[in-house]
Amino acid sequence: RERVLKAKSARLEVKRQLQAIRAKEVEAEKAEHAEFVAKRFQEKKVVREQHEASVEAKRVAVLGQLTEHSKTWISPESIDDQLAEAAFATQLKEATESKVGNLGALSWLERLKTMKPVDYDDVDDEKK
How far is it, in rounded angstroms, from Cα 27 to Cα 43? Predict the structure, then answer.
């Protein structure tokens, strides 16, 4: 019986030692993986920052072009003409949209605005 217990305790001791060795290996693998993840995160961060910087540079360039363009386009002398052209273009767009017959709520409202009452006389407009 004593010999059987010694053999059993020896097997358990070997098993504990193997578990300890495997635990150290797993810990090393986890540390290596954590290092890999951190390195990959830093690489992605650098790439993301470079992309954001290029996008920001493009945005600034476009903004600069637009401000230069708006300086030449809008002036105190030409603002009345520009506003008149913009209003004409907007009215033309609204008129074409309302004739399309789209059944959406906005087009319905636009059609309602352009409708005339039954007893409306065109003569009143011509007199004015």
Answer: 24
Q: How many domains does the chain have?
A: 2
pTM of the model: 0.41
Question: Phi and psi for 104 in degrees, rounded to 5?
Answer: -70, 165
Summarize pLDDT for 6-25 with one digit per residue, the tens: 999 999 999 999 999 999 99
Domain limits for position 47: 1-73
CA distance 99 to 93: 10
Q: What average pLDDT score do residues 57-81 get?
A: 82
Question: Rounded to 5 degrees, what angle do the CA atoms 41, 44, 47 make?
Answer: 155
Residue pair 95/88 in contact (Cβ under 8 Å)? The answer is no
Is 97 within 8 Å of 114 (Cβ atoms)?
no
107 C-beta neighbours (distance < 10 Å), count: 16
Same domain, 7 and 34: yes
Q: Which residues of 3-39 are buried (b: 16+ CB within 10 A; e: fewer)?
A: eeeeeeeeeeeeeeeeeeeeeeeeeeeeeeeeeeeee
